[in-house]
Amino acid sequence: MNKTQIARKVSRALINTVEISQVPSVIEELTSFSNLIEADRKIRLFFISQIFSEDEKKRSLDEILIYMKASGDTKKFLKLIISQGYLAGLKDTIKSLIILYEEKARKVTAEVTAPVALDEKYISRLKSALTSLTEREVQIESRLDPSLIGGFIVKVGSTVYDSSLKGQLQLLRAELTRQ
């Protein structure tokens, strides 16, 4: 199995054993732990290494998680992936977990790229339109890209809606060069 398959398998196991309302806090705690081991090479190598015993790793993990004030679900999950040797795929597991959580909770994240910052009134209208289109609760992530000139690009899952002036000009150029 590759890292992506393992990440899906492990995240499915977690989402099926934790109450859906607890998943966002578990994701937050896992992300904090992931950031910690990415920031400190020695800690990462300690948990990945075969030199240290499982008992030493568990004791050290317990101390770190007490300091982080992590929930019992996060503790059990991290102990499992460390003992199984899946820690290297933690970032992939978190990504997979977020996707599974959004599916189960009927939520979706829309990435909106615009040349200028959108005001709250416009974001609210866009959110409402996307909610009716996707039949899911929509969360908006805004990005700025001045090269779009006007309009915006919305990405929901694998679907892209491009109403930007830059995109329209590219379509027009492609159409003119084809003829």
Order of strands side by side in the largest beta sheet?
Answer: 2-1-3-4
Q: Approximately what portion of the residues adopt beta-strand conformation?
A: 5-15%
The count of DSSP E runs of length 2 or more, i.e. the number of strands, is 4
Terminal residue distance = 48 Å
**Contiguous runs where pLDDT drops below 50 for at least 5 residues:** none
Proportion in helices = 55-70%
The radius of gyration computed from the alpha-carbon positions, rounded to a whole number of angstroms, is 21 Å
Shape: elongated
Major sheet size, sense and barrel closure:
4 strands, mixed
So how many helices?
A: 8
Structural class: alpha+beta
Q: Write the H/E string, N to C.
A: HHHHHHEHEEEH
Average pLDDT over all residues:
88
Protein described:
There is one protein chain. The termini are far apart. This protein is of the alpha+beta class. Helix 7 (120-134) links the parallel strand 1 and strand 2. The chain has helices spanning 3-17, 23-39, 41-48, 54-68, 72-83, 90-104, 120-134, 165-178; strands at 107-114, 137-144, 153-156, 159-162. 17% of the residues are buried. Strands 2-1-3-4 form a 4-stranded mixed beta sheet, with helices on both faces. It contains 8 helices and 4 strands.
